[in-house]
Amino acid sequence: MTPRPVNDAQREVLDWLAAGGSQDPPRPEMKLSAAALAARGLVKVRRPGGKWTAELTETGRYYVEHGRYAGEVEQAERPPAPRTRRAGSPARLGTQELSPAPAETREPVVVPQEPQEQVPLRQVVRRPHPVVKELRDRLGRLPMPLRRRCVLVAHSLGRVSLMRVAR
Predict the structure, then answer these.
(1) 99 in Cβ contact with 91 (< 8 Å)
(2) How far, CA to CA in Å, does 133 sit from each of 145, 156, 157, 163?
(3) Where is this region: Disordered (predicted)?
(4) Residues 6+ apart with CB under 8 A from 38
């Protein structure tokens, strides 16, 4: 599997380091991008004496010069991978080499329908399901600003689904 390409913010960090920068990036968020690049082996981040520094690795220099990882084939040189369709899987749109399945083996296409009713969102949770209790009681599981809304939505969906099963 080939490594993922860098995004624009990460490319900016690579260019800044290639231009000679190593301490005090122009923007503080560049430190976060540098940490992501360090996980890919493109940058080495250190804090000697509490001072943040970063430098390009050999792999990082190669990426800056060539726009790709070492050993990775350029897009134009890479031959297209042959695609074959497994029995029973639908053909993808836009592929020329795939032929549609014979009419007698095609399955009907199921089109999702709009929901018939909206699930009412309760404002108070009474007698919550054990899953909702787990969401509510584990403080680190949900971010604080969204916790109440997530618990209300989970509780409402759980109640409606239990009512539908009981029918």
Answers:
(1) yes
(2) 18, 13, 14, 19
(3) 71-115
(4) 44, 45, 54
Q: What is the pLDDT of residue 76?
A: 47
What is the token pair recorded at 50? 């509490």
Q: Please give the structure tokens belonging to residue 79.
A: 């031959």
CA distances from 166 to 39, 127, 152, 160, 162 (A): 50, 17, 21, 10, 6
**pLDDT tens, residue by residue, 50-94:** 888 999 999 888 888 888 887 776 654 555 555 555 555 555 554
Handedness of CA 122, 126, 132, 134 (dihedral sign): positive
